[in-house]
Amino acid sequence: MTQDNQEHLTIEQLSAYIDQELSSDEQAAVAAHLQTCEQCQRALAGLRQAVLLVRALPQVEVPRSFVLPEELAPAPILHRPRETEPVVPLQTRRSYLLRRSVRALSTLAAAIGLIFILSGVLAGIPLGFHGGGAASSSNMSTDAGQSPTLGRTPDIMTTRKGEKTPPAVTNAPTPTPGPTNTGTHTPSSAQSPPPAVLDLAQPAGRLSLGSLLLLLSIVGLVVTRRRHT
Amino acid sequence: MAQPAREDEALLIARSQHGDVSAFNQLVLHYQQAVYNVVLRVLGDREIAADITQETFLAAFRSIQMFRGGPSFRAWLLRIASNQAYDHWRRTHRHPVDSLESMTENEESYSSEAISSLIDTEQAVNPEEALLSSELQEVIQQGLEQLPLDQRVAIVLCDIQGLSYEEIAITTQTTMGTVRSRIARGRERLRKYLQKHRELLPGNYRLHTDRE
Fold first, then answer.
1. Inter-chain Cβ pairs, chain A and chain B, closer than 8 A
2. What's the CA gap between A173 and A130, in Å, rounded?
3. CB atoms < 10 A from the CB of A36, how many?
4. In angstroms, rounded to a whole number, what is the distance separating the alpha carbons of residues B161 and A102?
5. Considering only CB atoms, which chain B residues are within 8 Å of A22?
């Protein structure tokens, strides 16, 4: 009789003993205890038979093959997206930024142009449309702010200008759309005799300037969209 | 099925990591039996076990980059399988407490699909396995299924797949102490369950009726 007899073996000890998963010391101690303790022997036998029954369950044959289709897309390699990602933006980032700023400027121009048109129309309806007075050259700066946008696409601008100006003019007919166009393109020629159409004090002036800005913005937006696709 | 040689397996894994499906399929052929049987014994349904086995290999191929060439590819694979089985069990057993209680109260009532799942397994090659009647197999399977999921998975991995406690700890992402405890508690519960059905047990498996 050893002193181990005082405390019976736990189920956990017996279970691990069956699997030989105890440390060699523990394994030996359990074996020694089992030699003398009938109660633990029976507990072990009961447990072992349950284990044997589970282990006797047959391996079931697979009902089919689980191989994957050969055409399956290759396993996603983690660094692959990072490789391709910087390549595309590096080339497009500059033109993208340029496009963005052009679009922003065009939108701004459209907003200002609409305000001009609106104020021109509102003021022009009761008063008629007789242009006159001194030109305020300070307002030309608003227009000049848009010239970088224009500079990139002068050819498109001139073609579009002819088409788009008439509808704006019909609201409040301005007699000479021709000089307006040349005036914005080459401000030096327009400076000496300030035409009435650019006089912001007059509704007609605001109208024509507004429609001009609107036109420029449309051109800007159209051009950037074309580049985008 | 024979274990593939270490270096062969490492090569197949490396090729699979470069997207080689045919290399991965050689691993599938090696391990499909083990994966299928683990899932089948845990969930007890052949159709579901087949679906989950397929999902397991698909998930394994997709995430094989994550396998860092650890000690056991089998344990890694079985971890995916048991996780899938866990997920399925949670999806289909929304009220685990209720079903567990009803099962332990009325252990005789086993589902018919679990019975049919074991009927065709008679033609076992091993004569020792042939000793188990399909009825007895079904009782054992029911005994497994009334165990809490953690204990069931641990016992299936240990006694049906022959994994070491260390491999089970890797597979179930727990400690060896927990594995030891789960297996012991599961076996004790299973022993009590099988004792109630001892009239079905063949002579050499008859359980000792201790404390009686």
1. 148
2. 10
3. 12
4. 68
5. none
**Among B55, B191, B211, which would you mutate to test the A interface (most chain A Cβ atoms within 10 Å of its Cβ)?**
B191
Asked if A81 is an interface residue toward chain B (Cβ–Cβ < 8 A), one would say no
Q: What is the pTM of this model?
A: 0.56
CB B41 within 8 A of CB B16: no
pLDDT category at B4 given cuts 50, 70, 90 is low
CB B52 within 8 A of CB B81: yes
- The C-alpha of B192 sits at a distance from chain A's nearest C-alpha, in angstroms, of 9
Determine which of A12, A14, A51, A53 to mutate to test the interface with B (most B C-beta atoms within 10 Å).
Answer: A53
Q: In chain B, whose CA is at the least distance from the CA of A71?
A: B21
The answer to whether B53 and A62 have CB atoms below 8 angstroms apart is yes
* CA dist., res. A82 & res. B105, Å (int): 57
Looking at chain B, which residue has its C-alpha nearest residue A13?
B184
Tens place of pLDDT per residue across chain A (229 aa): 444 445 899 999 999 999 999 999 999 999 999 999 999 999 999 999 999 999 999 999 999 999 999 877 554 554 444 333 334 444 455 666 787 888 888 888 888 888 888 887 777 665 544 444 444 444 444 444 444 444 444 444 444 444 444 444 444 444 444 444 444 444 444 455 555 556 777 777 888 888 888 888 888 888 777 554 4
CA-based end-to-end distance of chain B:
43
Coil/strand/helix, residue B71: coil
Q: Which amino acid is at B80?
A: I
Contact B28 A62 (CB under 8 A): no
Token couple for A73: 């897309």
